[in-house]
Give the backbone structure.
Amino acid sequence: MNDVISLDTLREQITADIENASDEKALDAVRVAALGKKGSVSGQLKSLGKMSPEERQTAGPAINGLKNDMAALIEAKSATLKKAALEARLTSEKVDVTLPLQAGPMQRGSIHPVSQTLDEITAIFSDMGFAIAEGPDIESDYYNFTALNFPEGHPAREMHDTFFMKAKPVAEGEESNGNKMVLRTHTSPVQIRTMENQEPPIRVVIPGRTYRCDSDQTHTPMFHQLEGLVIDKSSHIGQLRWVLEEFLKAYFEVDNVKTRFRPSFFPFTEPSMEVDVQCDRSGNEVKIGEGNDWLEILGCGMVHPNVIRNCGLDPDIYQGFAWGMGIDRIAMLKYGMPDLRDFFDADKRWMEHYGFRPLDLPTLFGGLSS
């Protein structure tokens, strides 16, 4: 009789503890206190070993029944607490489903205007039958100056205009060959390398990084330049003008452009010319292909016979033309960027404003900058 009363008391106590549990953590503490290895119900089960067989026949089912009943109550209480916790969370963590989704990485990322312009240039000149050529950023004095017909003492060879690399030490008894290394000041050395390694006819464009000691609103120590080269037996200035005007029409996406060629001087071309393009400066932006103003856009000329000869070709048989322009500068003109230095500041806000969507590759038939 005492055992029955004890079990009834235990049942009432555990039941009350279960009902009073306010959260799942408190309920788990009740479970451990009652049904754990050292719990009150488990202690009753251990006492069966000390009872007589007759007592165990009565106490055993009663204690196991208590254990099963308490386990069922705990499971039911747990379900109730979980439901209440979920409802409380849903009430406190409301989400406005009408808000737009956050853009994914492909939508947040953007193409730099220089990369976009390089892709546009590649699309245009590839359509015109030109190949893309590249060369090293660190060049020898020979490829950067001598082979391109720069005479000794030319201002471009001075330290104030060119980044010269530290000269290699000369061993005792050896003579320096004077072949210093420089950060290339233009992409023209690739013209020499191309002519040395490829038989004419040659039609290449050469985009790449170049370096000069200069920094202001329209100049940076590192900038991007585009060279073009055509070498064959019958090229002439008329073809040069057609290539440049077709490029300008395609790049600026206008129906017509008018160009003006002015005499100039470059050591590697003869004759040499500066090219102006018709534009309108009356508003806040420069509009190419209209108006009555002129804007210098690039330099060009017929390849100097000495340059052709330095590449192992006969200037009496082969001739050609070349041109060069600043990629950063034509990007500024097309997309209205006021300061060249912003190209290299890594400002996220600037990129969000001027950047291009990553999957919109420029094509002539689909629109370069659409």
Remarks:
- The chain has twelve helices and ten strands.
- Confidence is low (pLDDT under 50) at residues 1-5.
- The longest strand covers residues 269-280.
- Residues 113-166+178-354 form a domain with the BirA Bifunctional Protein; domain 2 fold (CATH 3.30.930.10).
